[in-house]
Amino acid sequence: MNVSLNEIPWGAIAPIIVLQLILMITALVSCIREEKTNGPKWMWILVILFISLLGPVIYFVVGRRND
Amino acid sequence: MELLKACDLAKSFGNTHAVKGINFHIEEGRCVSLLGPNGAGKTTTLKMLSGLLEPTSGSIDFKGEKAKDLREFIGYLPQYPAFYNWMSGKEFLVFAGQLAKLNRKEAEIRSEELLERVGLTNAKKRKIAGYSGGMRQRLGLAQALIHRPKLLMLDEPVSALDPLGRREVLDMMREIKEETTILFSTHVLHDAEEISDDILIINAGEIAVSGSLGSVMEKYRQPILHIEFESQAADWLKSITSYSVVSEVDIQGNKVSIVLNDMVNGKQTILQDIVDRKLPILKFETSQTTLEDLFMKVVKA
Amino acid sequence: MTQWTVLYRKEMTEMVRNYKILWVPIVFILLGVMQPVSSYYMPEILDTFGGLPEGTILEMPTPTGEDVLMQVLSNYGMLGVLILVLSAMGVVSAERQSGVAGMVMIKPVPYSSYILSKWAGLLTITLITLFIGYAASWYYTSLLIETVDFERIFQSVLIYSIWLVFVVTLTLFFSTIMKGNGGVAFVTIFVVFGLSAVTSILGENMKWSPAAMTEHTGQVLLSGEPGSGFLLGFITTIAIIIVVLIASIQIFKQKELLE
Fold it and tell me: What keywords is this UniProt entry annotated with (chain B) (predicted)?
């Protein structure tokens, strides 16, 4: 009862994965280049890497300093 | 020529009267210091003059006319200048210049000029986020000058700086004062004495003393004796307050400062007393009251 | 170049430098395309991972394209609004807090230019985000489910954009009158969701409400025509937006800058 790899509709799924990756990389770049984040930087890097979609969003909203 | 005149300028916040109807004027080309202790109403006064704060009552004349919006003619450096930290120093200056109605090209040229002048040319492409306190203050000075204002207002321009940064900013102010009228606030007397032509001493929202530095010093100068004893001489010091030549006695441990109404007679009387009573003195010095003594007197009164 | 243009350009540059122009639209695209994808694969997903007992017959009508897009808009109405408000909450309050708003206003800048440049910046990002996200969603829906008439898409997104413009205008207002960013977001969200709830409960009596726009959006999608009372709602929403903007400017004038 396994979905075989070629049954997965890559045409539809691939763009979603790519966008998620872009989001994650953007957040990472922003986080690393930021002088100071709200809270420890390493924590934000973990949040961005391991919580998909929501992680980068939370970082952008809460982690970045507004100036 | 009179550049700016404040008439009965007052500001209240609720029940607190921060500035209580002050009158003064600023002559063109002078460097004026607004002196006062913290909370005297210096910043409030500056903000009203700059147009950032609406006065509760009173008016401001600029070049003899009732002023509506003075911001075009005024450069202002707040006590804690803030920037868009994601911009570079140059970007911020060009931005500020354009807000002050320069076109892009003028703003660029003027920015380069000022960066050179405040010594930030090497840092102009760096983000402001990485600037030190002294650099931020100098950038703040540059943005205030960007549109060649008629009047430059600086709120405590050197209070937050270390001695080196303070020296730099004071030297720059000395240069700028050749071109522009300056009004700056400070609670540090030394700075006021060093570069200002005129002083305004403000205390509890009112102007206590005003005039040119020289004339104020002249007018309020009083002879003073500094005496140091081997041991305390409180009894005698209490008794001399009744002498007509003595105007004030300030005791600090074994030291005392006696403000006199008349140096010649006063010195005679006091010395005579010391000899008669065989008071054990270590030091006896005559001098004149300084701006600091005047300031302390005004503030304590 | 007017000071308004200088300020608006600064807003846009800032959004590029802090990646807002990238991440907000991406989030909306993802929210938009995940709906059609999950609707399409739902039976298979349930089949594979759902652990349903053997023999269960799945009676799952395939949703129409309109249903899917309505679901997308409903996601935008919750998560989307949340993200927009959170990303815009500091628009004025953060600049007042840092003191840089004072640095701008000591230059001869009209108070209205400052607020309106902020508003235009918010409008730009909001509309770009909504249009791109919705277009992506429409594309995926036609790919996986069925094509929805373009005219309906176009009209519905226009109507929906009025609601979002209202939401960001309100965010700007609270950001002007309040100081803490968190408080701004909280109050705005509270008002927006409260208005939505009251509008859907009272229905008939709330035709003027900006939140009624979201209902008209659904009706345009389903029937091609907005519901009754659309014009009333449209006019009051625009009027409220204008009044809120004017109030923001007036209040901003009274605020003490550079404390």
Answer: ATP-binding, Nucleotide-binding, Transport
